[in-house]
Design brief:
The structure holds two protein chains of two kinds. Chain A is α/β, with parallel strands linked by helices. Chain A is built from twelve helices and eight strands. Chain A folds into two domains: 139 residues, Rossmann fold (3-Layer(aba) Sandwich); 120 residues, Rossmann fold. In chain A, the strands form two sheets. A four-stranded parallel beta sheet of chain A has the order 2-1-3-4, sandwiched between helices. In chain A, strands 6-5-7-8 form a four-stranded parallel beta sheet, sandwiched between helices. Chain B folds into two domains: 109 residues, no CATH class; 72 residues, TATA-Binding Protein. Chain B is 51% helix and 19% strand.
Chain lengths: 322, 189
C-alpha cells in the first residue's frame, strides 16, 4: 500500500515537472540570437500594371527569369512582382506579405522607363516615403491602397540610367529594318506632362544612338499616353514627318510591356491612318520586354542594394551602444 | 390576356415605374452630372481644383546650394510657414511638399510653380460613385443599371392608345437608334 502511494506521488511529481517544462517559454539556442537582429530582405518588382493579360504575363515571366539569380544574392530572401494599378497583387499586397513574413528590408525595383509622376510622386507616396497631396487624392479616387510597411523600403531608380534602352531599341530597329539608307525611325513612348523635358531628352538620346549605330539618318518621337490624350494622332503625325524625307518608317514602341490598348489600338491605329502604310510603314507590336539586359539590370540593382543593406546593418551593429 | 390581368399588369407597371423613378432620381442626376464632367476630362479636371501660382525667387541656384533654410525661404514666398519634405526630380529642379500643396522650383531660372489642390465640391463626390472608387459600390452600380432597364421598359409600356408605344412611341423609339448608329458608322470610316 505504502509502495503504491509513493509510486503515485512520484508519477504525479514527474507529470507536474513535465507540464511545467512544456509550458515554459522557448529559450533561444544560444545567447547570440538575442543580440544580433537577423536581416531579412525582399525584392519587389514593381510595374505600372494594365488590364491586359499580355502585359501581366511579361512581368510574370520576368520574375521567373530572374528569381533564381536574385534569390542567390547574399542577404535576399524573397522576390515578388506587384502592379501599381489595374492588376493584382497590388503594391500594398506585396508590402503586407513581406510584413507578415517578418522582412526587415524591401528593395523596390520599379520597371519604369524614366522619371514621371508615378515614379517621382505616386510610388513613393504609396509605400509611405512621401505624402504628395495630389498623389494622396488620386490614389484614393482610383482605389489604390497606400500602405506604410514595418520593413524599411529602398526605392531603386528607373531604367534610364544604364544603356538598356539604347541597345534594346537598336536590336529591335535592326530586326525591323530592310534597308537602313531609306528608312527613318519613329520612337513611340508613354510620355509625361510634368516631366516632358526628361522624357524628350531620353528619347532623343536613344534615337541618336540608334541612328549612329544602324546608319539610319532620321528619327522622331511620338507619345501615346496621357500627354497625347491616348490618341493615335501623335503616332500618325510622327510617321508623316519621317515619310517626308524617307521611303519607309520603322515604328518602335518604347513601352516596357505589351497591351492591346497601346500597341494595337493607339499605335496600330496611328499607323492605319497613314495612306499606303502597308508598303511604307514597318511595325511589330512588341515591347522592351523580354530583354536579357533588363533582367541583368534587375539582378545588379538587387545585388547593389542588398550589399548596402548588409553594410548598413554591420555599421549599425558596430556603432550600437551596449 | 384578359382585361383584369391586363389592368393588373398596367397597375404594377405604373407603380414600378413611379416608385423606382422616385427612388433612383438622386442617383440618375448624380450619374448624369458626373457623366458630363467625365466626358470632358481632357479639357478640365473634374475631380480637383488645382490653383497655380507662379513665384519669382530672384537669382539662380544650384542643387548643392539647397539647404533647409533656403527651402524655408522659398516656402515663405509661397505663403507656407513650414514644409514636409523636399526632393529633386532633376539636378535643376527641387520639389517642396506641404500638407495640400507643392512648390516646384526651377533652380536655374529661379522660378517656382506653387500648386494647391482641393476637391471640386459635388463633382468629386459624384465622380467617386461613377468611377466605382468605393470597392463594393460596383455591385450597387450593377443593381442601379438593372433598375434603369426596368424603369425604361416600364416607361415604354406605360401608355396605351395613339400616344403609347404602339402609336407614336414606336417612331420615337426607332429614332433614338439613329444617333448611336451614325456615331458607329463614322467610327468605322
Amino acid at each position: 500500500m505504502r509502495l503504491h502511494r509513493s509510486l503515485s506521488r512520484t508519477l504525479v511529481f514527474a507529470f507536474l515537472c513535465l507540464s511545467a517544462l512544456s509550458c515554459a517559454p522557448e529559450q533561444p539556442e544560444n545567447s547570440e540570437r538575442k543580440t544580433s537582429v537577423k536581416k531579412k530582405t525582399g525584392v519587389l518588382l514593381l510595374n505600372h500594371g494594365s488590364r491586359s493579360e499580355r502585359w501581366r504575363e511579361n512581368f510574370v515571366k520576368l520574375e521567373k527569369n530572374v528569381a533564381e539569380k536574385v534569390l542567390s544574392i547574399e542577404g535576399i530572401d524573397g522576390i515578388q512582382t506587384v502592379f501599381m494599378e489595374h492588376a493584382s497583387p497590388s503594391i500594398a499586397d506585396g508590402l503586407k506579405a513581406y510584413d507578415r513574413e517578418g522582412y526587415s528590408d524591401i528593395i523596390v525595383i520599379p520597371i519604369f522607363l524614366t522619371i514621371g509622376s508615378h515614379m517621382f510622386d505616386d510610388i513613393p507616396t504609396i509605400i509611405g516615403m512621401k505624402e504628395n497631396p495630389a498623389s494622396m487624392e488620386k490614389l484614393k479616387l482610383e482605389g489604390i491602397e497606400r500602405y506604410i510597411p514595418n520593413a524599411k523600403t529602398h526605392l531603386a531608380p528607373p531604367l534610364d540610367y544604364p544603356d538598356i534602352l539604347k541597345t534594346n531599341a537598336l536590336r529591335r530597329t535592326l530586326a525591323l529594318s530592310k534597308n537602313t539608307e531609306k528608312e527613318g525611325v519613329v520612337l513611340v513612348g508613354y510620355g509625361s506632362t510634368a516631366f516632358d523635358a526628361q522624357w524628350t531628352e531620353l528619347f532623343e538620346n536613344v534615337g541618336s544612338y540608334v541612328c549612329e549605330k544602324s546608319g539610319i539618318s532620321d528619327f522622331t518621337i511620338a507619345w501615346c499616353g496621357h500627354i497625347a490624350h491616348y490618341s493615335p494622332d501623335s503616332t500618325t503625325a510622327a510617321i508623316h514627318r519621317i515619310l517626308e524625307k524617307n521611303k519607309r518608317a520603322l515604328v518602335l514602341p518604347l513601352l516596357v510591356s505589351s497591351s492591346e490598348q497601346f500597341q494595337i489600338e493607339i499605335i496600330g491605329g496611328g499607323i492605319a491612318a497613314v495612306t499606303d502604310h502597308q508598303s511604307r510603314v514597318r511595325y511589330k507590336p512588341d515591347a522592351i520586354l523580354p530583354d536579357p539586359d533588363l533582367e541583368q539590370w534587375i539582378v545588379d540593382t538587387a545585388e547593389q542594394y542588398a550589399a548596402e543593406i548588409m553594410e548598413s546593418n554591420e555599421t549599425r551593429q558596430v556603432s550600437a551602444p551596449d | 390576356m384578359t382585361q383584369t390581368t391586363g389592368n393588373t399588369f398596367r397597375k404594377v407597371n405604373t407603380v414600378l415605374h413611379r416608385d423606382l423613378g422616385y427612388f433612383f432620381a438622386a442617383l440618375i442626376l448624380a450619374y448624369s452630372l458626373s457623366g458630363i464632367a467625365l466626358n470632358h476630362v481632357d479639357e478640365w479636371n473634374p475631380d480637383f481644383i488645382i490653383s497655380k501660382n507662379e513665384i519669382e525667387l530672384k537669382g539662380s541656384y544650384k542643387k548643392n546650394d539647397i539647404s533647409p533654410e533656403l527651402i524655408r525661404d522659398f516656402s515663405a514666398k509661397a505663403g507656407e510657414s513650414s514644409y514636409r519634405l523636399y526632393d529633386f526630380p532633376s539636378s535643376r529642379q527641387v520639389k517642396i511638399y506641404y500638407k495640400d500643396a507643392t512648390l516646384m522650383v526651377d533652380l536655374e531660372k529661379g522660378e517656382g510653380l506653387y500648386e494647391k489642390i482641393s476637391r471640386r465640391p459635388v463633382f468629386y463626390q459624384v465622380n467617386v460613385l461613377h468611377r466605382n472608387s468605393v470597392d463594393w459600390w460596383k455591385w450597387a452600380s450593377d443593381v442601379f443599371a438593372a433598375m434603369l432597364i426596368i424603369i425604361t421598359i416600364t416607361g415604354l409600356l406605360m401608355l396605351r392608345g395613339p400616344n403609347g408605344f404602339s402609336g407614336r412611341g414606336k417612331w420615337f423609339f426607332g429614332a433614338g437608334f439613329i444617333p448611336p448608329i451614325i456615331a458607329l458608322v463614322f467610327q468605322q470610316l
